[in-house]
Amino acid sequence: MSTSTLGIVKRSITRADRAAVTTLSEFGVATVHEAMGRVGLMRPGMRPVYPGARLCGTAVTVLLHPGDNWMLHVAAEQIQPGDVVVAAVTSECSDGFFGELLASSFRARGAVGLVIDGGVRDVRDLTEMRFPVFSTAISAKGTVKATLGSVNVPVVCAGAVVNPGDVVVADDDGVVVVPAAGAESVAKAAAAREANEAGKRDHLAAGELGLDMYSMREALVRAGLKYVD
Amino acid sequence: MSTSTLGIVKRSITRADRAAVTTLSEFGVATVHEAMGRVGLMRPGMRPVYPGARLCGTAVTVLLHPGDNWMLHVAAEQIQPGDVVVAAVTSECSDGFFGELLASSFRARGAVGLVIDGGVRDVRDLTEMRFPVFSTAISAKGTVKATLGSVNVPVVCAGAVVNPGDVVVADDDGVVVVPAAGAESVAKAAAAREANEAGKRDHLAAGELGLDMYSMREALVRAGLKYVD
Amino acid sequence: MSTSTLGIVKRSITRADRAAVTTLSEFGVATVHEAMGRVGLMRPGMRPVYPGARLCGTAVTVLLHPGDNWMLHVAAEQIQPGDVVVAAVTSECSDGFFGELLASSFRARGAVGLVIDGGVRDVRDLTEMRFPVFSTAISAKGTVKATLGSVNVPVVCAGAVVNPGDVVVADDDGVVVVPAAGAESVAKAAAAREANEAGKRDHLAAGELGLDMYSMREALVRAGLKYVD
Amino acid sequence: MSTSTLGIVKRSITRADRAAVTTLSEFGVATVHEAMGRVGLMRPGMRPVYPGARLCGTAVTVLLHPGDNWMLHVAAEQIQPGDVVVAAVTSECSDGFFGELLASSFRARGAVGLVIDGGVRDVRDLTEMRFPVFSTAISAKGTVKATLGSVNVPVVCAGAVVNPGDVVVADDDGVVVVPAAGAESVAKAAAAREANEAGKRDHLAAGELGLDMYSMREALVRAGLKYVD
Amino acid sequence: MSTSTLGIVKRSITRADRAAVTTLSEFGVATVHEAMGRVGLMRPGMRPVYPGARLCGTAVTVLLHPGDNWMLHVAAEQIQPGDVVVAAVTSECSDGFFGELLASSFRARGAVGLVIDGGVRDVRDLTEMRFPVFSTAISAKGTVKATLGSVNVPVVCAGAVVNPGDVVVADDDGVVVVPAAGAESVAKAAAAREANEAGKRDHLAAGELGLDMYSMREALVRAGLKYVD
Amino acid sequence: MSTSTLGIVKRSITRADRAAVTTLSEFGVATVHEAMGRVGLMRPGMRPVYPGARLCGTAVTVLLHPGDNWMLHVAAEQIQPGDVVVAAVTSECSDGFFGELLASSFRARGAVGLVIDGGVRDVRDLTEMRFPVFSTAISAKGTVKATLGSVNVPVVCAGAVVNPGDVVVADDDGVVVVPAAGAESVAKAAAAREANEAGKRDHLAAGELGLDMYSMREALVRAGLKYVD
User: Fold this and answer.
1) Which residue among B38, B200, B229 places its CB closest to the CB of D12?
2) What is the per-residue pLDDT across D2-54, written as a single tens digit (0 to 9) for each?
3) Is E88 in contact with E64 (CB distance < 8 Å)?
4) Partner-chain contact A91 D139, CB within 8 Å
């Protein structure tokens, strides 16, 4: 009935096609977002904990209460190899919900990273472990384990809808969500786009102008652009 | 396949039950949000353009491009009496997408208000018209009409999923979204909650402590609370 | 050589034509901004200290150091009837640079208001005096008088260039700056725009759609808009 | 040992002298802050829930966990007539920790208002009750009752240290804290300042310049100010 | 008449003296800003896309519409070797206006970098290319090409006025603008300042106090500083 | 009488036990914060100027006026080997109060770093010097030396109370303050916590779930958690 229900753990979820996930992992977020038709992007405040972090996997979703990371422990049990934990919080909170102990646990379960609309800590350890984390804050402040949220319900994370099983792709440019059912077609569209861009890059690097390559001059004149000296 | 598709106008949408909307209009946002099980609330940055503004209606959704209000004109045609236009923008933008001309148009079509994750202008006129608007910004800056978005697709507006036809309730406390299918049960739950609170209010106003009324003392001791002098 | 020079008070400035200022005072900020060709608007964080505040006058500009309002006293002497003091700060600062004592002084000199990219205090008094102030912050924290800035040099205030003598128009929608030399033509353009909008308002209020009134349907189809049921 | 200890309720606190509180209640926050030697002010984000709200009372302090208002109920029992509840949160949180039910309870116990570095809800009711609340956010989102904080320990609220029993003065300009031991001397200093300002106001309103009244001209020249035409 | 006019491309601009640009490129932004008399600095939110990025060149200015990078393609044609593209947006927008394709194009035309009061994408590629970019946001979200702005008109970028041909210097400390006409004198002043600081550094590193080196003790006493034990 | 008094330099302060400081330097901020009972943490906006910066030392406190770094020179004289300068500002200010010259001076006096609730500059130099600085902003904008603050008075820095002599520990996760008198007991608690976590890490890395290791399952059921398929 509503976006998410509290106090629920869904155990059986339908993950996106594994081959499509592998294909998507070869592309950057900007390319995937374009291939999606420019939807599914999280807000730009979602940043990697260390430069160069990147991940691609299927979502195990979590809904947390501010200042409380109880459900991340519940989520750990639902992780399967290749999953990304995607955590939303019911209101903005910079607390450090996640650190190196949970990273060790998540990795042991096969997780390839974490995306959280909140804070994390142990930045130095996460960097050394090369465990990719994308968060909206960094804070040493720990959390309690007192209030139920949910696992594997649909969530809105940093402005994007994430359903369990969706593909999540993240790199220095941000985080994008590909619905499970569309993973294969988006992967194909991304590959096509990438191929198309390669040719353009060579032209532009050789000094050809986008004005000419994209045939923009006429449209600019029609729109009223005036050149003066 | 994705949260929303660009360039689409859906004409036939299923609006929430009219009687349920009427019932919901009698409650404040805080009450409805509690009755929902604490989901569906937009982020707190969504504020009324004038103090005391409030609205309750069925959503006609719009997805806008930053700096471009073309789709609000397209949306106007889809409005039916009792609707609220709910506008999301593909990225944060404070521009004044909406002002008194569009308010005149929306009202003429039967709209009971606007909720927009962006800016509006003509605050003085909107206030005089008593046309309730909830926005995240106020700006005199106008917008262009050049790029397609969509109308009546699911959107994420200020962190909440809104499907066309959902009930949107807004007052000084914020904006909450009730899925169309759940409107009646939420309306009942809200009424029950309100009745329950009335009794509590009298007790508290008479000086009874929440500690006693809610029987919290034992739990506090169990949690380790210590009283010192 | 640079945008502004520190330690300078320019006494003779060329104010915009008085009649043009009077004409401009009849229009809202949104209208003037449109008439300007959509330039000259300050950032939306600039808000009136009390709802309904509005002003229109010629700028006496001030450049302040953070936490220091010395130059506002220097500016007071340069005020002529009909002037608006426009204060920029060399870096963002929420301190209360201005309160009711300075408001009494400015009013006595003929000032019609203040626009400041910083904080003010004595909100209650300013409201009772109906002295219109637009600021980016409210703070009880007073300032020192120790460091020179300048008066009547060009400043960038909340993102807009203001030259001494320019017309500044402010209302609930924000603050716009009209260069002195263009005041008359902008006033005319604003009047034309207002006249043009009056007709549109009637049509829209009668239920005519902007889609038809502005003949948008064809362009929407050309852009690829699709209607579905 | 530390700023505050969790899980503690201190029952016996030393409140500031009642007469000094009464005297302080006659002055605005800006005046009291100046009389304090410009210390003790909370950050400017602390705003009244309705325009014109003001309060002056002795602090009952509360330390809350984000998303959890349990301790506000514990605090209610410690309120004595003339107290102001001052609530800090261990990390930034916009949730609605307080609404009209708690306001009814607090008022019944004699509280004259609430200052909270977090969110509140039921704005309409609080406004009708004229129960003065100063907060950093407004949100319909309710809170849980699961995690201990403390009552009547020293807290840092919006950047200011508050000890239980201190005087808290709040109006449209912000919130200032006067240590209990200094209440009488600050009250005297505030009265002296107010008397001194009255004379200045008359001079300024009559057109005398601050430059002359405060004898600033020589210092400005010494600092290097140059007048040009 | 106004700060900038829309729909204009100015082809002939007067660039700052090449030798002065070369000299300025040897200094950090802090030194140049001091040499300017502390004016011309952009707001601190302007950050390098990769640590250690720095640039110095002559400005080709661009005014963009939010969510629209059309004019960056128009600007590419106006680039001459040694230029920096400086892009302002008519309202705040975090979209990714610029990525590696445009970087390839700009570099091919001789540009030494980009400064934009908006977002960029392809951070990994830009870092590998060592193409220095300073922006206020990073976002994978692409932009449309639909609305005219201008090229080589005066703009306000992140609070600083930039005229085409001005020198723009950027490093980890921020971005400063040197008017073309003043480039040589600022370069000289920067060199003088740098020479002066070298001596100070040695003294300070040897343990001499700034209090003594700058002869501050007397002024501190005069201001009323008190030492206590 | 108040949190801090202006115009005072306290020369004799009681620094935390040196051995305890050495022990604390071996732990991360998150561990120390937990060992403190989760108090004493500065707000998360306090970030290292270069990745990997860390420090641990005894506080020399400074209270600055916005845009004015005079007191940092006064503080330099009070530094003893092993000290950290902790600077608060009376209101939020991003100016560059500190750069490489002061870093040279502070280091020469034995300081091990700086923590400032404001801006700094010369990021490149500070990084090369490996002088650890934690700040809330980076800005090339210099400051004046005109207004008194204080040295070695209690301050509130980024939301945490700091008394002169307290231990300050900072790393990529943030900044925490340990009161001087509690340094030894916190050091012991941190060591105990670290030992305890080592065992947990091995279990988690081996795939054991936190649900089992922390025996959470029963409490989750009691709280009402439901597993569904």
Assistant:
1) B229
2) 334 689 999 999 999 999 999 999 999 999 999 999 999 999 999 999 999 99
3) yes
4) yes
In three state form, how does the secondary structure of chain F look? CCCCCCCEEECCCCCCCHHHHHHHCCCCHHHHHHHCCCCCECCCCCEECCCCCCEEEEEEEEEECCCECHHHHHHHCCCCCCEEEEEEECCCCCCECCCHHHHHHHHHHCCCEEEEEEEECCHHHHHHHCCCEEEEEECCCCCECCCCCEECCCEEECCEEECCCCEEEEECCEEEEECHHHHHHHHHHHHHHHHHHHHHHHHHHCCCCHHHHCCCHHHHHHHCCEEEC
pLDDT at A1: 33
- Bridge partners of F61, per DSSP, are F86
pLDDT digits (tens, 9 = 90+) for A169-207: 999 999 999 999 999 999 999 999 999 988 899 999 999
pLDDT in tens, C115-142: 999 999 999 999 999 999 999 999 999 9
CA–CA min distance D94, chain F (Å):
15
Report in angstroms the alpha-carbon separations of E164 from E28, E151, E154.
Answer: 21, 9, 6
Q: Give the span between the Cα atoms of A146 and F222, in whole angstroms.
A: 11
Q: Are chains F and B touching, using the cut-off of 8 Å on CB pairs and a minimum of 3 such pairs?
A: no
- Over residues B161-220, the pLDDT tens digits come to 999 999 999 999 999 999 999 999 999 999 999 999 888 999 999 999 999 999 999 999
- Low-confidence stretches of chain F (pLDDT beneath 70): 1-5
Q: Which residues of C touch B137 (CB under 8 A)?
A: 44
- Asked if D226 lies within 8 A of C8 by C-beta distance, the reply is yes
DSSP state of E228: E
- Best mutation site among B6, B38, B39 for testing chain A: the one with the most A CBs within 10 Å? B39
E92 contacts in chain B (CB < 8 Å): 92-94
pLDDT digits (tens, 9 = 90+) for E48-75: 999 999 999 999 999 999 999 999 999 9
One-letter amino acid of E156 = V
CB–CB of A146 and D147 under 8 A? Answer: yes
The pLDDT of residue C6 is 85
